[in-house]
Request: fold
Amino acid sequence: MCGIVGYTGPRDAGPILLEGLRHLEYRGYDSAGIALVADDGELFVEKRAGKLANLRSALNGRTPHAGIGLAHTRWATHGRPDDRNAHPHVDCSGAITVVHNGIIENFRELRDGLVARGHVLVSETDTEALAHLVEEAYAGDLAAAVRSALGAAHGAYAIAVMHRAEPDRLVGSRMNVPLVVGIGEGETFLASDVAAILEHTNRVIFLEEGDLADLRPWGVTVTGPDGGPRERPVSRIDWTPEAAEKGGYAHFMLKEIHEQPQALRQCISGRVRRDGRIRVEELGPVAPRLAALSRVELVACGTAYHASLVGAAALQAWTGLPARATVGSEFRYSPPPLDPTTLVIAVSQSGETADTIAPTRYAREQGCPIVAVTNTVGSAITREAEAVLFLQAGPEIAVAASKTFTTQVATLVMLAAAIARERGSLGVEEETALGRSLLALPAAAQRALDLSVGVAGMAGRYAGSRGFMFVGRGTTFPTALEGALKLKEISYVHAEGYPAGELKHGPISLLDADCPLVAVATRSTVYDKLISNVMEGRARDARVIAVASEGDEQIGRFADDVVLVPDTHEILGAVLAIVPLQLFAYGVALARGTDVDQPRNLAKSVTVE
Ligand code: G6P
Reply:
């Protein structure tokens, strides 16, 4: 997704902004640009399609000395990803500069009006219209002009604006897209993400919907859409810039895969007592509504959806209530009947996914109690929910999710147990057995990593395959989906995740020596059934890679390659079984030479529909 960084203060803005963009690269982008009001009052703009290196080489290592500037990484929504459509965008007078994340939905109408009034728009973007709207509204006060321009725009946005005539002032505003203000010593920052400014300050204000922030080097004023003041707390962020760096690993994804034991430890700590009792205090605000529930709906996208499938199974098993997970973009336009007895659980690593937020908001409007599960403090989803459970997994930089999947599964399982206990449907013995498995999970995840040392090498032998069929059954099915998604995302090889019993109803025709079968065959109540399905595939010449539980002595008879993972509570199986499959995807991607951390066409957080 797009990234924004802005600076006003006594230091030279250019290098600060370029470094900020580097920290935002992980969000995924297709072009980058920078604008500065140089010390001589001239506006300097440079922007380039492609990676940041293209922008840097266009700049030839130099930017004019400036105390204020804006920079942007773009992920195209309107107009091709080329130099012209890259941000920043400038008005007719060359005085006003705008960068923008999100989509202005009525931009065609706005553009037509602007063109009819004599403006010359040079790009195909929705953003450029904003620069011209600010131009029309400007009468010496940038904040007032931005507020007025935004009054005409509908959609989702985080914007940052500067005017050459006010060379120490940055104005930012947000609606459904994140924007944070950084408070330094005699300098201030605007950013789409704290990672962009963390090396300069850890004191930030998370702007809320409709907020307009007026930044000067010495401070910031926040107002609402009505122009009235808004009190916004300054938060201290304890993520160090180093925490977001790669450490000794070749890729962020590999680092994050190896961080899973620690991420799980953080996630579980404070929620499971030593005696195995599970306490999810964050559930407090919805606790009074749990007794009257009639069903549970989980809503999520991508990896978070796969974790939600585990959550739904746990909830249904332990509460006896119907529970299901639905992809956000489907839920949004074909919503199930919702009423105040339907608990809605929204799951989103970033907390900013438009396809997850919209149905959550709709459910809230229907009176449903809402619980959000996210990794991101201050994210949009948290404002839609009465109760929020944070994954506490630390920042995840690679576009393909790893540690946020395993911590989502753990968090949802703890949530399901806590809900069932509140409703009196989970006995103490069951609860403590689960609690003990949770406490053992970080060490088990480490063992899964240790047992998987050979996986990346083994993956290399399969990297030339035409495609892969991942299968699971019951509790292992979500892992098959997630394993296939990882492979697709980072290696660009076709992979499908299927319930093993469905193989014979169609996809078995794809299997041959060039399409291996990856079986998630960890211990489960339907293990034998799954093995029968694997045998059907093997009979079609498919090579079989199996992920199985330690101690499984027969699996070697059914598979060409076996990776073992420790045994755990069946509902937590995905947390361990996914580890070798993440490494398998990584190994195939390495062998195929793809961009592991920033795969083509993908963005870490998708804030448009
Ligand atoms: C994007 C990412 C996926 C991710 C999905 C949901 O499409 O590329 O990896 O699973 O969004 O993201 P969320 O932040 O809502 O969990």
Q: What stands out?
A: The CA atoms of residues 307 and 405 lie 6 Å apart.
